[in-house]
Specification:
By secondary structure, the protein is of the alpha+beta class. The chain has 14 helices and 32 strands. The protein folds into 3 domains: 255 residues, 3-Layer(aba) Sandwich (Rossmann fold); 179 residues, 4-Layer Sandwich (Metallo-beta-lactamase, Chain A), CATH 3.60.15.10; 99 residues, Immunoglobulins (Immunoglobulin-like, Sandwich). The radius of gyration is 30 Å and the shape is globular.
């Protein structure tokens, strides 16, 4: 006997589905809620997909409706794979990005069916045109390689409608992306199938937009670390997690760049309090004084990440906050927490890195006018402990990879020392996006804040020992993180008695690669015994950065 709750669900779904006379179905309602799909997606690593920037030239109505608002009606046409795509409810997170736009999705599908069937008389009218679409998405894996039938369906739509059209390669089916020969066929233009090449040419020829869903989906599968079956409900079809891969790719595809996204630059609310992005993150604010203080709001409650001089407390009422429940410190430096005395009497709980608990709770033990190498938290004789003025009790200490929940927000605690000895960054999932709050670990332009940048140039070994009159080799690793060719000029500055051969390196490194350069270091008879720092002076692409790197040589 079927439970009543199941019967109710069946009735609701049946009411949302129209059975066409020739076995196709038309679904007019979302098959899941935003909360449901976000819950499913939270089990997965984020989908990272960069859509082609020129896609909007063939999606003029789509772009106008998303940015200016109105009813945006999308017809999805194809087979059961297209139904899986629809069941991802990709339209719901897109709606969150563009709240002035109401997206109505109509799913017109028939199992194992492509445009060779839909092109027959009356079917384009029934499954597409009668729904007055703003956008038609044609996808799936059942077109039998028949490009001309897809062309005919596009022609019929164009003859009766000014809707945008998006042609999309299929996902799932029997494809195994981890098999290298199949991955080559999917990702390497020289190995594309005739159908894949033909579909892109058809889009170009008819003025339709194009999305290579198969390559985007397969790339995620290869990098996921999960078995393909973890994303499938049967040998052909996606399960709820697999559907979210497709859905989040579509979400990214229909996301405009920040420069044209409403309120992307932030809006001042009160004083230095700024709404980070009213459309994407309506409950996230930033206050700037001695540091950046982030405010996450839920109703009339808030959680702060760092505190600064606590000036933010005077402005929270402007965004409806009555009670700060938690302050999560990224690290102990006093510019993050000097406003702590203002929290007294407010019933606020404090959290921070467990590795820095002593620095928070016993700050006077670490304040010294002349730190030495024997002291805790020193580097080259200089302290990087800047403890608060008075003790701060931690109600919760976070260790590496701890989790923390607040009002439905799930935080992950990442150990990121460098700027401070036990610094912590906090990652939180919000509406399908990952936000990272990293304190002072990163500076403007996303540059790491550290004493010696370890990325561009690195000596191996970092520390070596030489006897007078002897030589040894050190390898300089030079890395190019950029996509374009990088030109470098690197000088090795040695003290008297030490000689580097060659004394400078000059050349080019191709994009996203690294090279190793052997350098022979010799200590002559005049070299002073003891430890010396060998400075590495770097110029990249004509810009001098100075002596950013080093390594150590001890002469015996």
């Amino acid at each position: 006997m079927i439970p009543k709750s199941k019967i109710s669900l069946i009735v609701i779904l049946f009411a949302a589905v129209t059975m066409a006379a020739d076995d196709g179905i038309i679904i007019r309602e979302n098959q899941r809620t935003l909360e449901q799909i976000n819950g499913i997606y939270s089990q997965m690593d984020p989908v990272r997909y960069s859509p082609p920037p020129d896609r909007w030239k063939n999606l003029p109505r789509t772009r106008e409706l998303l940015t200016k608002g109105g009813t945006f009606r999308v017809v999805m046409l194809g087979d059961s794979i297209v139904n899986d795509t629809s069941r991802s409810c990709w339209n719901l997170p897109v709606e969150k990005r563009y709240p002035e736009c109401k997206i109505e999705m109509i799913t017109s599908v028939r199992g194992s069916t492509g445009c060779w069937w839909y092109k027959e008389p009356g079917r384009v009218r029934k499954f597409v045109l009668d729904h007055k679409p703003s956008l038609v998405i044609i996808g799936g894996i059942s077109h039998r390689g028949d490009i001309e039938s897809i062309r005919e369906v596009v022609r019929q739509i164009r003859a009766a409608s000014d809707a945008d059209i998006l042609l999309m390669t299929g996902a799932f089916g029997s494809v195994a992306p981890r098999e290298d020969d199949q991955w080559q066929r999917i990702s390497n233009r020289d190995h594309f199938s005739e159908y894949r090449k033909g579909l892109e040419l058809l889009a170009l020829d008819t003025g339709a937009a194009f999305l290579d869903m198969e390559a985007a989906w397969a790339g995620y599968i290869r990098g996921s670390g999960k078995d393909l079956d973890w994303f499938k409900r049967d040998p052909i079809h996606a399960n709820e997690r697999g559907e979210q891969i497709i859905g989040r790719i579509l979400e990214s595809y229909f996301s405009l760049p920040a420069s044209v996204t409403p309120s992307a630059e932030g809006k001042a609310v009160s004083g230095n309090l700024v709404a980070v992005d009213e459309k994407l993150f309506p409950n996230l604010f930033v206050w700037t004084d001695t540091c950046n203080v982030y405010v996450i709001r839920d109703g009339d409650a808030a959680l702060l990440i760092d505190l600064g001089d606590a000036g933010v407390l005077d402005h929270l009422s402007k965004v409806g906050v009555r009670q700060v429940e938690w302050v999560m410190f990224t690290h102990h430096h006093r510019e993050q927490c000097q406003g702590y005395p203002r929290l007294k009497g407010r019933a606020v709980k404090i959290a921070g890195p467990e590795a820095e608990r002593a620095l928070f709770e016993h700050p006077s033990s670490f304040r010294k006018m002349k730190p030495t190498l024997g002291d805790a938290f020193t580097v080259y004789g200089s302290g990087y402990a800047r403890p608060p003025i008075q003790p701060i009790h931690l109600d919760r200490g976070f260790s590496k990879m701890d989790t923390f929940s607040w009002h439905g927000y799930e935080f992950r605690c990442i150990h990121t020392p460098g700027n401070s000895p036990g610094g912590m960054s906090y990652l939180v999932r919000y509406e399908g996006h990952w936000l990272a709050f990293c304190g002072d670990v990163m500076l403007d332009g996303a540059r790491m804040h550290n004493w010696f940048d370890p990325f561009w140039v690195r000596a191996e070994p970092y520390r070596m020992t030489l006897k007078r009159g002897r030589s040894d080799q050190v390898l300089l690793h030079v890395r190019n993180f950029r996509r374009d060719v990088q030109e470098h000029h690197i000088e090795i500055h040695t003290p008297p008695g030490l000689v580097a051969e060659p004394a400078f390196l000059q050349g080019k490194i191709s994009g996203e690669s690294q090279e190793e350069f052997p350098v022979r270091l010799k200590a002559d008879g005049n070299a002073s015994a003891g430890v010396s720092i060998i400075a590495i002076d770097v110029t990249l692409d004509g810009r001098s950065y100075g002596q950013w790197f080093d390594f150590i040589v001890e002469v015996e």
